[in-house]
Design goal:
Elements: E1 4-7, H1 15-26, E2 31-33, E3 40-44, H2 48-58, E4 67-69, H3 85-94, E5 99-104, H4 111-114, E6 119-123, H5 128-137, E7 141-143, H6 157-164, E8 170-173, E9 184-187, E10 194-197, H7 203-210, E11 214-215, E12 243-248, H8 251-267, E13 272-276, E14 288-291, H9 298-314, E15 319-323, H10 330-341, E16 346-348
Parallel strand pairs: 1-8, 2-8, 4-6, 5-9, 10-11, 12-15, 12-16, 13-14, 13-15
Antiparallel strand pairs: 2-3, 3-7, 4-7, 5-6, 9-10
Helix pairs in contact: 1-5, 9-10
The structure holds adenosine monophosphate (AMP) and magnesium ion (MG).
Magnesium ion (MG) is lined by residues 144-145, 153.
């Protein structure tokens, strides 16, 4: 099938394109659309056949549930069995925005959406194109990130095309995503609200409003046999073609270690990428350096992470040496994704062991 791209510059002037996208949804087809987090691959959440197409187009495992996107607060009512007060408080504070709430599902939500779970993930995105597209569709939109399963999430329409060209009929192009990492997933069915996946609404913001909040132990560690509360967390994720290695330590030690490793890998004929920050970039004389942003602005670093990983692939890099970022504020979400992209390969900058073999 041919994949068309329609650019939306202005939601009023380009309403024809949005209506066309809505018509595809109503016909049970897929549409990729921009949100403030990443691009989503949407289908009518109430139509099992349409939702099945998402899993097929992405090659997504059937046990990985989808997030249901809505455009108005009252849309949540028929999707859930009960709406605890805490959910209402969070919705009023953070919706529309990058916060997904896990609630007990009602019977209108098909099993394929929730991968058979008794709970459903719901979010109201704040990107104006997403909100209008959902509103015109007239149904809740089930949407995972619009990439091939396992690959880095797309933050531009071009990224979506790179992954899904020929597999979906339409991409709405709303420019670069502002947050650039997937939403925070917060489980409200646990005794204490629990962050299953860190994102743009941070632990610090949530504790300020709610008091006690837990972070699932899988956020910065491999699951190693424990049951994933958020099934998506058990899969290899966000992986570029290049092998990623995270280097952890004090800034000076980290720079020294990355320079040593770069030297060592280059001698083996390996093309090395370095994922650096404004504060460190000038200390790298070799390797292909990309800068995430300043360490004092983690939200900006977060928004650049996925496009940097894709850029390393475009540059033909074999191995990416990534600096450890402090897992605070948006830094927690950055490290959650970076460690998964690295399959949890972390080198200690202070240790004397060098490198390890290149996977090839
Ligand atoms: P994606 O849409 O690709 O960003 O992935 C959606 C994420 O939300 C995955 O990590 C899922 O595991 C998680 N998720 C969706 N529904 C649920 C649910 N009912 N319970 C827990 N996690 C969920
Ligand atoms: Mg995804």
């Amino acid at each position: 099938m041919e994949t068309r791209i329609l650019r939306i510059n202005d939601i009023d002037k380009d309403c024809g394109a949005l209506l066309e996208a809505a018509k595809l949804i109503q016909a049970g087809e897929l549409v990729a659309f921009p949100t403030e987090t990443v691009y989503g691959l949407g289908a009518n959440a109430l139509n099992s056949g349409a939702v099945r197409k998402i899993f097929e187009a992405k090659g997504r495992p059937g046990d990985n549930p989808l997030i249901v996107h809505i455009s108005k607060l009252q849309d949540v009512d028929r999707l859930v069995r009960e709406l605890p007060l805490i959910a209402t408080v969070l919705m009023e504070r953070f919706w529309p925005g990058p916060l997904t709430l896990i609630l007990k599902k009602s019977s209108v939500v098909p099993d394929i959406v929730t991968a058979g779970l008794d709970t459903v993930a719901i979010r109201m995105p704040r990107h104006p194109v997403a909100l209008k597209f959902i509103e015109y569709s007239g149904v809740p939109i089930a949407a995972p990130s619009a990439n091939r399963s396992g690959h880095t999430s797309p933050t531009t329409a071009q990224h979506v095309l790179d992954d899904l060209d020929g597999r979906i009929p339409l991409i709405l192009d709303g420019g670069k995503c502002e947050v650039g990492l997937e939403s925070t997933v917060l489980d409200l069915t646990a005794d204490v609200p629990t962050i299953l996946r860190p994102g743009g609404v941070t632990y610090e913001m949530l504790t300020q409003l709610l008091g006690e909040v837990e972070i699932d132990s899988g956020a910065l560690k491999p699951l190693e046999g424990r049951l994933a509360k958020s099934p998506g967390m058990k899969y290899v994720h966000y992986a570029p073609r290049a092998q990623v290695v995270v280097v952890r330590g004090q800034i000076d030690e980290m720079i020294k270690k990355i320079n040593e490793l770069t030297q060592e890998y280059m001698e083996q004929g390996v093309t090395v990428g370095i994922l650096a920050t404004c504060e460190t970039k000038d200390h790298y004389k070799e390797g292909k350096v990309l800068v995430l942003g300043s360490r004092t602005q983690p939200a900006i670093m977060a928004s650049n992470l996925f496009s940097a990983l894709r850029q390393f692939d475009d540059m033909g890099v074999n191995i990416v040496l990534a600096e450890w970022i402090e897992p605070k504020d948006e830094g927690l979400a950055i490290m959650n994704r970076m460690l998964r992209a690295a399959a949890f390969r972390v080198v200690d900058a202070e240790s004397s062991t060098v490198g390890g073999g290149f996977r090839g």
